[in-house]
Amino acid sequence: MRRALLKLHLVLALLAGAFLLVLGVTGSIMAFEPELDHLLHARRSYVRPHGSPLALTALADVASAALPGQRVTGYVLSASPDLSYQVLMGRRAVYVDQYTGQVLDIREPVPDLLSRVHQLHLRLLIQNRSDTGKAIITLTGAVLLVLLATGLYLWWPSKRMVIDLRATGRRRWFDVHTTLGIASFVFLLIVTVTGLVIGLDDRLAPLIYRVTRSAPALMYAPPKRFIVKPSGAPIGADRAVEVARATLPGAAPISVNVPPPNGTYVISARYPEDRTPGGRSRLVVDQYTGRVLAVESSRTAPAGSRLVTLNRAIHTGDLFGIPSKSIMSLASLAVVAQLVSGLALWMTARSAAARR
């Protein structure tokens, strides 16, 4: 049994090594994706807070002047006062200082480095209807789970957690591989299992709702449910945001769309205790009457929704902020370290066998 599992451990690592390397490197970067985005684009990201933000309609006028002829399709409002707003115009985003109305930058519809890293981690940059890239990444996660299980089994008899600095060759790489593997085992297990749940969300999410005896919120009903008939002038995005603040006191609106004539405003909001950058609270508002058609608060969300959100927050490291982000980033790098040390161990063992 031990020999068979050792062979399985080796073969799976060699077959999936390239994909595991991609997951490890991109995962370590994605743990700090928002922070890195602000750092790499500081000129368009940061503003000096003073006074109250301008009305969204005023910011729309500024953006329209910067991109004449383009229709405003939505707004991204920052949850932090020192981060800029965005006016969305089709596939472009105009970054504006919400206090002065100054245009800071225009993001063209061309993937930047971080967005490519994100898509590489999610689906290997493969975009097709069958989502082949996501399937490969999910399969790679399943392989990593098997590697963790077999690695634990192979380590258990010796329970060695020492790196002998005087050792050379195979012994040194064996110590490095086993010690790093066991030291990071719990965190690797967490990031692997939560990643698999995300990769299999279309199958596991319904199961989660059944187990928790809950149902997805109204917010996720088909969009046709919220088609409205034009009747008078729209209330405007600023009024829609006010409705959101009144409906969900304490939640900061972070995005709002500009709907077509028969559409509705959809506002995403974020409570201070929310541990994900995206808004997990949402409202659908009739653009003509201001009536709230549907609402979901992260504070009162169904149990199933809470578990799905919690799983994602654990995987990304958002759960406890920078400390948990750092742990998840290091756990991703541990995958890379295990690949390097495992490959070195295998090559030194082969070299020693050849000399004999």
Quote the average pLDDT: 93
Strand sequence of the main sheet, in spatial order? 4-3-2-1-5-6-7-8
The sequence of SSEs as H and E is: HHHHEEEEHHHHHHEEEEHH
User: What proportion of the residues form beta strands (DSSP E)?
Assistant: 5-15%
Largest sheet: 8 strands, antiparallel
What does this structure look like?
- The chain has 356 residues and is of the alpha+beta class.
- The chain folds into two domains: 2-47 and 99-209 and 315-355, no CATH class; 221-301, Nuclear Transport Factor 2, Chain: A, CATH 3.10.450.
- 53% of the residues lie in helices and 12% in strands.
- It contains twelve helices and eight strands.
- The chain has an eight-stranded antiparallel β-sheet with strand order 4-3-2-1-5-6-7-8.
- The longest helix has 34 residues, at 322-355.
- The two termini are 26 Å apart.
- The mean pLDDT is 93.
